[in-house]
Amino acid sequence: MNYQFSNRISKIKVNPLRANARKNMEHPDVISFAYGFPPEVAFPSKQLSEISQKLYDLENHETFLQYGPSEGHPEFLTALGKRLSSVVNVYDSDTDDLMVVSGSTQGMDLTVKAFCNEGDIVICEAQTFSGAVNSIRAYGAEPLAIPMKGETIDLDLVETALIADVDHKIKLIYLIPTFQNPLGTSMPLADRIRIYELAKTYGVMIFEDDPYGDLLYEGEPIPKIKSFDTEGLVIYSGSFSKILAPSTRVGFLVIPKMAYQMVLLGKQTSDSHTNQYWQLVAAKFMTDYDFEAHIEGLRELYKEKFMLMMSELDKISPDLMTYIRPAGGYFLCGKLSDALDTRRFYDYLIAHQVAVIPGNVMSVEQEGFDKYFRLNFTKPTLTEIRKGIKIISDALKVASISSSAEIFEQEAM
Ligand SMILES: Cc1ncc(COP(=O)(O)O)c(C=O)c1O
């Protein structure tokens, strides 16, 4: 058969993260800083099995085995709404509605589906979550990569792009303002206000992707962009993947009321509804257990790993690599000094069985960021962090010695 695939699907780039995820799981000897996985000890298995048992003991337990509403299970939406208005401060039931989605990946997909035509443009941080970039391309829209300036997308360049967009092709601004993936950075409040004002001035929606927002280890939380959305410009996206378990595939969107129905229509042609069982488990965890204490436990667990990784990295000379210290989340991003030989750096890591994510993978164009590498600090153990960062440190030295030798060779020629 000569398959004729759609232009839409042909534009999507193979995601090496997904392709390699299985391989990584099959190699226990590798110290992996690569994937954004929680460690197994983070799963509240005891509570989940208790909840599960109770759900099956309910007389009307067949209800969660039945088809359910696309918007979400009412019990889940009520529990979630309370948490989002009181703890996270991104939900006001007068102006917004909640929608469950099958992982926040689907939330981005549905948003692009609802707002973008083929040829439309979505502004993105140049280094960003590859899943979102693929969602944009899947609908024939184009991601416009704007470089970072410190911890924020370059706002002057965003403004320039918006001014130049006389045909109003820019429909969305996709941002991960808190504990960015891959950079670990957080946009300061003043920048959040400025980008919101830009969106308002130019009539563009913002998609605030926030799967890591609860995982703060240092300093004070920064208000979400959604918290000052008075104009219905921001769709806020959250997930239970990093605070409960990724396999639940329970994520959610906070959507301005006027936009809600169109996004919902998109969901109905996509999966009709999200897994009801896991919505109920998440709901019961929020109502019958101390969910905030569980999250506090995750913060403590990850903070110890985070602090260790920082202290190990701080032993490395800034002549070899630099990084911006995150305040929370799952990742940080190292940057090799310009003089270092990137290929030798990776060859050394592969030979010594340490896995990291090369910067180009987590970028819109999959090029231009070969000096960057992303490190996850939640999945590896403390021992693996110590051992793995030592190997990274050695790899940097090898990459620097070799490149100096090469320069010497070239100069001698
Ligand atoms: C920024 C960002 N958005 C969305 C996701 C996807 O999350 P989910 O598991 O809820 O689909 C991830 C996962 O790694 C992510 O890093």
UniProtKB/TrEMBL annotation:
Belongs to which family?
Belongs to the class-I pyridoxal-phosphate-dependent aminotransferase family.
Give GO terms: molecular function aspect only: pyridoxal phosphate binding; transaminase activity
Q: Name one GO biological process term.
A: alpha-amino acid metabolic process
Read off the SUPFAM superfamilies from this record: PLP-dependent transferases (SSF53383)
| Claim: Membrane is one of the keywords in the record | no
Q: What is this protein called?
A: 2-aminoadipate transaminase
**Gene3D superfamilies in alphabetical order:** Aspartate Aminotransferase, domain 1 (3.90.1150.10), Type I PLP-dependent aspartate aminotransferase-like (Major domain) (3.40.640.10)
Subunit and interaction comment:
Homodimer.
Record keywords, A-Z: Aminotransferase, Pyridoxal phosphate, Transferase
| Domain Aminotransferase class I/classII large, first and last residues per copy | 47-389
Cofactor entry? pyridoxal 5'-phosphate
Report which superkingdom the organism of origin falls in: Bacteria
Among its keywords, does the record have Transmembrane helix?
A: no
Q: Which organism is it from?
A: Pseudolactococcus chungangensis CAU 28 = DSM 22330
